[in-house]
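S1.2 Input.
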Amino acid sequence: MNQNPSPTRSTVASDLLASAVVFLVALPLCMGIAIASGAPPTAGLITGIVGGLIVGPLAGCPLQVSGPAAGLAVIVWQLIDKFGFEALGPMILAAGLVQLGAGLLGIGPWFRAVPPGVVHGMLAGIGVLIFSSQFHVMLDDKPKGNGLTNLLTIPEAVARGIFDMDFSIHHQAALTGLLTILAIMLWSQFAPRKLRFVPAALVGVLVGSATALLGSFSIARVSVPESLFSSFQLPGLSAFNPLFSVEGLVTVLALAAIASAETLLTAVAVDGIQTRSPRTNFNQELMAQGLGNMVCGVAGGLPMTGVIVRSKANVDAGAETRLSTVLHGAWLLAFVAILPGFLTYIPVASLAALLVFIGFKLVDRKKIQEIAAIGPSELVIYFGTLIGIVVTDLLQGVLFGIFLAVAKLLFALSRFGIWLEEHPEEKSVILHMHGVASFMFLPRLAGALEMIRPGMVVHVRHSELRYLDVACEELIRAFSRQYEARGGQVVIDWDDLDELKHPSRKEIRAAAAKFPVRTEKAQPSDTEAEAKA
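S1.3 Output.
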């Protein structure tokens, strides 16, 4: 199967319509995410354009749309707050270089190796941070600080809006934001069938803009330069200074890792909802994202990822090839170049309201129920990641979630079970062991052995043991010698027991030979084989 199917006369019409739909979805989101990131709206538009025109032709997931992501808004805001806006470009450039190198080294699929509790906890935490910060922006105010402070001051902001009877700027912005959210919700549920191709986000922003215009509200509007190219400026040498600090390098690696994970998880989701295009080549996608972020870093944009809302809109609108993704970037460029004045009618409160709605939706109750069905430990990882992000920051919260996941894994791998099965009539007892017999469980093993009555035939069953350390092996051997000296009998396969302690490479190869892995050069699920085809 061709990984890069070319548009044909029969697919151009479908791709053209899909690109228009994605453009209408992307336009308000690019600006809104930029504002949420503490950057000018033009930075988000630049990233949307690069995502279409640069990443679109090279992407390993043809129907995935790339652009500024709400999931990165928090880390970008923290980056700007800590290092300054001038350092954003070099850091995005460095993160893109990391992504490009990871793709060239063939480790793209490894970025998907994140536990589901951490992934969805991260998305929910990002949702809470976006909701809490943009709620204040929706009232034409500024965020109050970190995520926890923003969240705790929401009741105060609501109370001020209710009990202050003067129809101030905050009231005007609040009314604009509420009508934006209401329009999004109503359009999503009750849009006429023939008009459902019009995105709810665009309808909401249009309603908010009309409200502010007709009411002559004196609230903040989107500010854009007369020409997109006039804002283009290469970063100076001093802007690269943070890259030479440990904190700066950690931020770059975190940015690259989170952007890559979000991109590749989105690609997996796109593979699951479409059947018209080949499955994702993860390394190719990662290299394309890296190149795109390098361009964004130089051109003054935001970091980009593959984004699920725009990608789903692309698939739902009937896109057949990557042409729709490329064209959506062209429409963004044409609109900003020809009609930039129209953007100045859009209230900031309306874009903030759109992000408040998106942040609320990121805390998915159905996903929480699915994670709870997996087990309580996965739910602990989910809420641990979420709370860690809100209380500290995105990077520390994700690291805390990964720590919980590793702790769960270590606990599962180190579990040890032992019990006795007695048969008095046969004067025998079976000692069952499973899991990992390490020195930590030496007291439990000794206690079980001491409970065996003398004069019995003891069968030691260790087929379910995954590992046996030296301390436990010596205890079992000492018990066997002493028990048999007192007239009892111990039945055990000492060779098998010894293999659990230190299996040799020969034994590992022999075990692997029992379960051969078939390797075929061309399998439908092998994305690399698809690329070569």
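S1.4 Remarks. Residues 210 and 345 are 9 Å apart (CA to CA).
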